[in-house]
Write a structure and sequence with these properties.
The two termini are about 100 Å apart. The protein has three domains: about 80 residues, no CATH class; about 200 residues; about 120 residues, Glucose Permease (Domain IIA). By secondary structure, the protein is of the alpha+beta class. The strands form three sheets. Strands 3, 6, 7, 8, 9, 10, 11, 12, 13 and 14 form a ten-stranded antiparallel sheet that branches. Strands 1-2 form a two-stranded antiparallel ribbon. Strands 4-5 form a two-stranded antiparallel ribbon.
Length: about 425
């Protein structure tokens, strides 16, 4: 069986690769090399394999070269897109910073106007109380004048009756008592003068009362205008602050209560108005003024709270965002990265106390600041530190310079915000303050 198969295979090879002889001739001898069919087949197969391998390898190299070119082109396009996006974000940040500065200026102007209006309101309220007291005195004097006028009229009627009775007696008696007539005439003249004076005083009192009523009405209209302007100013100023704290996940009432407890038993910087010492119910104007004072108190407490929470940006110079808060390669990136030039100043984002300033593995040169409301901020990879542990800092104080220390791939600031020890996205606070600061 094997012999037949070998014979058939040999026949097939003889058909495609007939046996050949290769003659080698020299000057003295002639030799030949016999090339069998199997030898030729092996040589052909080996050459075919080498050729096929060369073709495949060349194709792979060409495809890899083409693919590398495409990848580089795509990477270049992605880099250009990324840089364009960074430029747009930088322009947006600059625009937001300009808007924040303008909003801060508007806020300061509103506070000045509120202070001026508050002074005018207090002066107007004091003037109104004085006018009301003066009106009461005029009305009392008017009542006394009317009462005196009635007494004079009664006395005049009695004197007339006496005169009439005396004249009858004189006529019947035929004798005239000149002393009695002189006394009666003097009394009548004096009574007439007193009557005229009382009437004149009453008329003056009525005119003065009308003038004071008009003045009070004008004062009330002026007070109403001041009240409306103050209420509008309070609404414009307080509403954005309410939204800012709510957007940052902070309960405004709880925050304000905590700030209010910082005052030494005063219950806040502003006290309610009270003009009555007789236990009377306060008037509508007093209630309205107290509501405005409460809003002003709330605004002032908001101003204090905003200084104690990290609503500010840690960098004021040019920068770009390089990495945000969230999971990256399966691990939580607990802050936001701001890339900039080496040595870029870094500022505290809120009032607080420095609890750590030194080297920490991974963070490099690190600063930790403890703020109110259980908030802590961290500033990592710094090149220089300008504060020490235990030092109290205010919002906007320069605390460090940007660097590349610790586990870092480039010059940048790693900025963290932690609430109750747990990291939160710092951009929550920064974005919440965009429309206010």
């Amino acid at each position: 069986m094997r012999t037949r198969l070998a014979i058939k295979l040999h026949a097939i090879l003889e058909r495609f690769f007939p046996e050949r002889r290769l003659f080698l001739r020299s000057d003295t001898d002639t030799r030949f090399i016999r090339l069998k069919s199997s030898t030729q087949a092996l040589a052909f197969g080996g050459a075919s394999l080498v050729l096929a391998w060369s073709i495949v390898a060349t194709a792979i190299l060409l495809m890899d070269s083409i693919g590398s070119g495409n990848f580089r082109e795509q990477a270049r396009r992605d880099l250009e897109t990324y840089q364009l996006r960074l430029n747009i974000l930088s322009e947006e940040r600059n625009a937001r910073a300009a808007e924040a500065i303008a909003a801060q200026e508007r806020f300061n102007t509103a506070l000045e106007q509120v202070s001026v209006m508050q002074t005018k309101l207090l002066d107007a309220e004091t003037r109104r109380v004085e006018l009301e007291s003066g009106l009461e005195a005029v009305q009392l004097k008017l009542r006394d004048a009317i009462r005196a006028r009635e007494d004079v009229r009664t006395e005049l009627v009695a004197l007339r009756d006496q005169i009439a009775a005396g004249g009858t007696a004189l006529a019947s008696g035929g004798a005239v008592d000149t002393t009695t007539l002189d006394f009666l005439s003097a009394a009548l003249a004096r009574t007439a003068e007193e009557r005229d004076q009382v009437v004149a005083d009453a008329q003056d009192a009525l005119i003065r009362a009308d003038e004071m009523a008009t003045e009070i009405r004008l004062m009330e209209e002026k007070n109403d205008t001041i009240f409306r302007q103050l209420e509008e100013a309070m609404t414009v100023s307080v509403a954005p602050l309410d939204k800012m704290f709510e957007a940052a996940g902070m309960n405004p009432d709880r925050i304000l209560d905590q700030v209010r407890r910082g005052y030494s038993g005063q219950g806040g910087p502003l006290s309610p108005l009270s003009f009555s010492t007789r236990g009377e119910e306060p008037s509508e104007d007093v209630l309205r003024a107290n509501r405005i004072l409460n809003q002003m108190d709330r605004l002032n407490l908001y101003r204090i709270a905003a200084e104690k929470a990290p609503f500010a940006m840690p960098i004021k110079d040019s920068f770009r965002f390089t990495s945000g808060f969230g999971y990256r390669w399966g691990r939580l990136h607990a802050g936001t990265d701001f890339a900039g030039a080496h040595g870029t100043p870094i500022y505290a984002t809120a009032d607080g106390v420095v609890t750590f300033a030194g080297w920490q593995s991974g963070y490099g040169r690190l600063i930790k600041i403890q703020h109110e409301f259980g908030i802590e901020t961290r500033y990592a990879h710094n090149s220089k530190l300008y504060v020490t542990a235990g030092q109290r800092v205010s919002r906007g104080d320069r605390i460090a310079a940007m660097g590349n220390t610790g586990r870092s791939t480039g010059t940048h600031l790693h900025y963290e915000v932690r609430v109750g020890g747990k990291p939160v996205n710092p951009m929550i606070y920064i974005k919440a303050a965009n429309d206010v600061f």
